[in-house]
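Subject: Sanity check before I submit

Could someone independently write out the C-alpha cells for this chain? I want to compare against mine line by line before I put it in a report. The sequence has 401 residues.
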Amino acid sequence: MTNVTVSLVCDFLCLGLSVVFFWSTFLVLLGLIKPARRYLKADKKLRFAVLICARNEESVIRLPVKSALLSHYPADRREIIVLADNCTDATAARAREVGATVWEKTEPSTGKGDVLSWGVRKVCEQGGFDAIAVFDADNIVSDEWFNAMNDALNNGETVVTGRRHSSNARANVISGWYTVYWDMMNELSNRVRTNLGLSGKLTGTGFAFLISALDEGSWKTRTMVEDVEFTVQTNIRGGRIAYVPEADYADEQPETVQYMWRQLRRWATGGWQVARTYMLPWLKALVRHPSLRLFDSFFAILTGMSVSFILLFNVLAFAVRMCYGPIDPHAFKMFFGVFGFVFAMSWFTAIASVGLSPDKRMPSVRAVLTFPIFSLVLSASVLYTLVCPTRRWKPIPHGGH
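---
Independent answer below. Compare away.
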C-alpha cells in the first residue's frame, strides 16, 4: 500500500465516521423543532425506594438525604435508603442522623454497579415498592423531582432520567466544562431524543425506574458504566429512557485535572466494555425487531468515539503526507480544516446547550470558550483506554476531600 493510499484511506475513514456525528446533529435539529411531551398529573402516587450509593461520604451525605426528605411528595410513599459501601468513616451515622435508612455493605465491591445490584436485590426482597430512584451521595434533589418522575412513570414510561446540573458550576474552569457537558447531554441529547420518541441515556444518577422494568427482577450490570449499560439493556428489551426536565437535581463536579482524568478514563473504559459486550445482542435485536429507536440507541453511545477516531485518522493522514512526500498545501488545509470543524462544532454546541438550559447556575464565559479543550481530553481518554483501560473502579471524592 503506497503512502498516498494510506493517507486517502485515513481520509475516507474520517468521512465514514462523520456519518455518526452528522446523524446526531440531524436529530438535534429535528428534536428542537418538535415540542416536548407533557405528562398528565397523576393521582396515583408510586412508592419509591430511594437508593443513595455512598462510600466514605460523611461530609456530603446529608445533602441528598435531607433534600429528598423535604421534597413535595408524600412521606409514606418514599423511603430514603443509603447504601453505605464498605465505609470506614461516619457516613452511616451521619445518614441516620438526618432520617435515612442505612444498609451497610461489608462484602468487597467491584464498583457502583455492584453496589446497586446488592441494593436493588434487597429492595425487591423487602417488597412494598413500585419504583426505585437512584442518587449519588453529593446530589441535591429538587422539591418537585418525585412528583415529576411519578407523573412520567404513571403515563407509560418505565425508565426516566432527570435534568442534571452543577452545584459548583463556577468553582473553576474544570467544573465549568462539566456544567457545559451536562447541559449538552440534557438539551442536545436526552431532550431531543425524548421529543422524537427515541431513547435518551442515563447519566449515572438522578434517574428512576419501575421495578417491573428490571430483567428478571434484578439489576445486572458488569461494566464500569452501569448507567450506560442499563440504558442499552433497556433499549434491547424494547424500552427507552425518557427525559423529564422538570425533575432537576444538582450534582457536584470534579475540580482538578487528576479527578477529571480519572473519571473520563472510567467513562471511556466502560464505553468500550459496553460496545464489546452489547454490539452483537444489539444487532440481533435490530434484525428481529427493526426500529428507529433501537437503531439510534447505539449511535448515541458511538458519537463520542467517532469524534475521537476522526481526529486520530486526520493526524495519521497528515503525518503520512508530511513524512513521505513533498509538502502539500492541501495536507495543511485538510488537517486544520478537520480540527477547525471539530473545534467550531464544540463551541457551537457548548453555546447552544448553555443557552437552552433553564438552569441559573451558568458556567463562566471562560469555561464555554475553552470547552473544546475538554472535548479534546475526552477524545484522548477514548483512544488512551483502548490501549490502557482502567482496571479498577475508583470513586471521585466529594465535598473537598
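---
OP: Matches mine. For the report I'm noting this point. The first helix runs from residue 3 to 33.
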